[in-house]
Description:
Blueprint: H1 14-22, H2 37-49, H3 62-74, H4 79-82, E1 118-119, H5 120-134, E2 140-144, H6 149-155, E3 166-171, H7 177-195, E4 198-199, E5 208-209, E6 219-222, E7 236-237, H8 240-243
Parallel strand pairs: 4-5
Antiparallel strand pairs: 1-7, 2-3, 3-6, 5-6
Amino acid sequence: xxxxxxxxxxxxxxxxxxxxxxxxxxxxxxxxxxxxxxxxxxxxxxxxxxxxxxxxxxxxxxxxxxxxxxxxxxxxxxxxxxxxxxxxxxxxxxxxxxxxxxxxxxxxxxxxxxxxxxxxxxxxxxxxxxxxxxxxxxxxxxxxxxxxxxxxxxxxxxxxxxxxxxxxxxxxxxxxxxxxxxxxxxxxxxxxxxxxxxxxxxxxxxxxxxxxxxxxxxxxxxxxxxxxxxxxxxxxxxxxxxxxxxxxx
Length: 249
């Protein structure tokens, strides 16, 4: 099936993967292409919170598909904010160090690979964060997107999270540092509740947030806890058009 066909529990395939991607900010599951109870819950939360349905059923018909497209259009992602500022790469790394790990530890937190863009699921989850923040009257922006190995070298860093797997969000307009911290804590709480994110990285295949002691006045969001199969190159994008277009699986 192609993206745009009706979907329901029990369906499988690339169109379900796309649905799971686009609803990453609403509870959230993995893009495994299996429309099970977790995906049904995603749909129901979207139908309730975005579409205003009183008794959502979790089936995806024409109205829900149109609402998902309209939701994306209403929450554009500024890719200029996401690009690396090193002055050497094209804004999204040079594809270096695939399969190379810092310190020899073969876990994703130490994978030095410069992924080819930002993960689509992370950016759709960011759209969800914009939606829920907007209900509190807050406007989000990205203050740190891609940071390649050259940018790390320039700034004395070694973390690889921002090689396409992470963004840092700011809530604009806080009148004081104290209120900024309070709002960032509240946003983390919202993302745990609404997007099924976790604070820290204990669980696999969950979107992750840095705790407040690491990120007091910003909100770090990443997908570094995903299994390798969910970090395939095809899930990383460099443009708005690619974000809104299903990849060839």
